[in-house]
Amino acid sequence: MNGLAKQPVFIDTILPIPGSKTLAIAKDIILVLSFSIITGLAAKLKIEIGAVPITMQTLVVLLSGALLGSKRGALSQVTYLFFGLAGIPWFARGGGMAYLLSPTFGYIIGFVFAAFLVGWLCEKGFDRKIKTAMISMLIGNLLLYIPGLLWLARFVEFEKVLAIGLYPFIPGDLMKILLAGLILPLGWKFIKRS
Question: Measuring CA to CA, which of 86, 103, 165, 182 is 20 to 30 A from 96?
């Protein structure tokens, strides 16, 4: 992990933009918007189980940080959040300002923090090895639950918050963490061979 010095993230390694500030800014805008859209699409891949649906969003959120880095990863989720509140119906259950009153809104806030933290860890080289990649994904995943569960507690009895907003998601989250934790180091190995 090179003494935790900042390292290039995966996307910048496979898509370098040398020299041109304008092209670098355009690349950043395209990446941020792309991951916002992918997050919205992942929200629609859902299983309704109660107050909080199971979606594929968390995988995209974790990968947005890992692939784009802390700032662009978090910005992709901020963009997702603001466009959703502006009315794009790409949250799991719609969009618009009324979504501020949804039991799942706290998780969307958590997406921003999770993407930033995973990105920061990957900038420190955590995505280069399977063990550290999985640790970064696990930490990021846990971080998104903090605002999610605190917000959910406004809508359900406090004693039921974990049963409704955490426990049903553990098996799927572990599979997503495993998948992301394996893909990233394998991607780095592939790049080094090329």
Answer: 165
